[in-house]
Design goal:
- The chain has 3 helices and 2 strands.
- The protein is mainly alpha-helical.
- A hairpin with an 8-residue loop joins β1 and β2.
C-alpha cells in the first residue's frame, strides 16, 4: 500500500521534461522566425539605404559637374570682363585723342580761312603752312570712327 500511495516521480519528471522540451522547441522556432523576420527587415532597409546612397552619390557627382561648368563660365566671364575693361580703356583713349585732335583741326581751319581772306600775306609766310594728314580708324563694333594724326606729322 505504501508503494501505491507514493506518486510516480519518474513519470512526473518525464512529463515535466517533455513539457520543457516542447516549450524550448517552441521558443527556438519562435526565436528563429523572429530572427529571420528581423534579418529580412534589416536586409530590406540596407537595400533601401544602399539605393539612397547611390542616388546621393549620383546627385553629388551631378553637382560637381555643375560646379565645374559654372567655374569655367565664371573664368570665361572674368576674362571677358578684363577684355571689356581693356576695350573700354582703349575706347576712352581713342575718344581722348579724337577730342585732342579735333580742337587743333578746328583752329587750323580757322587759321586757313583767315590766311585766305588776307591776300596781303607774303609768299614766304604762305610756305610756313603745315599739312595735316588725317587717318580714319574704324572700330569693329561699328561705333563712330576715331580721328588720329599720322605719327610722322606734328600737331598744330
Amino acid at each position: 500500500e505504501v508503494d501505491a500511495s507514493k506518486p510516480d516521480l519518474t513519470a512526473a519528471l518525464r512529463d515535466i521534461r517533455s513539457q520543457y522540451e516542447a516549450m524550448a522547441t517552441s521558443n527556438v522556432q519562435e526565436t528563429e522566425e523572429w530572427y529571420k523576420s528581423k534579418f529580412a527587415d534589416l536586409t530590406d532597409a540596407a537595400t533601401r539605404h544602399a539605393e539612397a546612397l547611390r542616388a546621393a552619390k549620383q546627385e553629388a557627382n551631378e553637382y560637381r559637374r555643375q560646379l565645374q561648368a559654372l567655374t569655367c563660365d565664371l573664368e570665361a566671364l572674368r576674362g571677358s570682363r578684363a577684355l571689356d575693361i581693356e576695350i573700354a580703356t582703349y575706347r576712352k583713349l581713342l575718344e581722348g585723342e579724337e577730342s585732342r585732335i579735333t580742337i587743333p583741326m578746328q583752329s587750323f581751319s580757322n587759321l586757313q580761312i583767315r590766311e585766305t581772306s588776307l591776300d596781303t600775306k607774303s609768299v614766304s609766310e604762305a610756305h610756313l603752312k603745315r599739312s595735316i594728314v588725317v587717318k580714319t580708324v574704324e572700330t569693329r563694333d561699328g561705333e563712330r570712327p576715331a580721328w588720329t594724326l599720322n605719327p610722322c606729322q606734328k600737331p598744330i
